[in-house]
Amino acid sequence: MIGSVGAVAARDLKLAMRRQADLVSVLFFFIIVASLFPLGVGPEPQLLKKLAPGVLWVGALLATMLSLPRLFADDYRDGTLEQLVLAPQPLGLTVIGKVVAHWLVSGLPLALLAPVLGLQFDLETDALLILTVSLLIGTPALSGIGAVGAALTLGLRGGGVLVSLLVLPLYIPVLIFGAGAVDATVTGMGAEAHLSILGALAIGGVFFAPWATAAALRISLE
Amino acid sequence: MLEAFDLECIRGERRLFAGVDFRLEGGEMLFLQGKNGSGKTTLLRMICGLTPPAAGEIRWQGAAIGRLGEDYREVLCYLGHLNAIKEELTPLENLTASAKLAGETLTEDEALDALEAVGLLGREDLPCKYLSQGQKRRVALSRLVHEKRALWVLDEPFVALDVAAVAWLAGLIGAHLQRGGLAVLTTHQAVDIPAGAVKELKLS
Prior knowledge:
The structure holds two protein chains of two kinds.
Chain A: H1 2-18, H2 20-41, H3 45-67, H4 70-78, H5 80-86, H6 91-118, H7 125-152, H8 159-186, H9 192-221
Chain B: E1 2-11, E2 14-24, E3 28-33, H1 40-48, E4 55-60, E5 63-64, H2 65-68, H3 70-73, E6 76-79, H4 91-101, H5 108-117, H6 133-146, E7 151-155, H7 163-178, E8 182-186, E9 197-202
Helix pairs in contact in B: 4-5, 4-6, 5-6
């Protein structure tokens, strides 16, 4: 069972390494969005500090969004998706493998990049730490929930826009508790409660959402 | 044993076919015929369980394929009109990756043997995007060499292949039938399968 998840993830990672442009464009998008705010709002440390958690989290959310349409589209176009569906293992496990690979090439780099961008907003060390931790815990939920939207819009015209409309509302809880965790640290309250809820969302996104994604993929392939 | 009862296919508003029955024993091949748009590919996808029929049922060894699920997918090898290979990966990587995803163990030697059988030895380390259409088809076909599945469902397997490769593939299908395997295929080319009983089914 673990083997089949690993096989899918390993293949997707290898493919991601062969087309690094996709990976880099997502990261640059995040960097640019996060850098536009200090430029637009002006160099007021108090204001920037207040904005930082929300801006960085929304940036990470949109960057994840950007990478979602490609999650299944390539496999769909070249026929690999049919083979994945016909493989003698539960399709949900295959999807978990793809979600894990997606997180490793989008969520994980975003989380590691976030503290560097956080410096522009004059965040303290402990806030930067919580920002990274909250993204590390929260981005798997983004990948898992986003996969449902990517599967539902597979093969549709204008799928990219539809994914945003479908998935962004579902990202709201992750955004609230992710940005909330950093906010709580900045204002001196503990972030444990927020992080626990993020953890619960991540577990749901990685282990339960893939079964909905599997059902959506079957419908898309009919 | 593969059986179909009273299959019906509706695409949009149109009924493509209805009342399709067939029965296929080990060692037999079903040759689907029909003009473009008559529903051959759809019927193949129904046999794989990708598209549910509007009416009717398909059974493998007497049990409905929907109920069998993974047990059925374990005996099935489907080759669609898309090659299901990744352009960024080499033929060798494609073959080992697809074997792993299908839950099979394939050593590098076995993979190289399969690629040699399809005439791609020497190209095994070249990314598939540099291969010709026919060579890509051969990469897809190399799965047939090593996967020992009982039921082959092949959608236009001879497309883009040269004369020698067509003869080779016909021989491969013949050998599969001789081992007691089953095959369902569509093709617009006249191809002689050297062994096994061929049944024909015309969709109109």
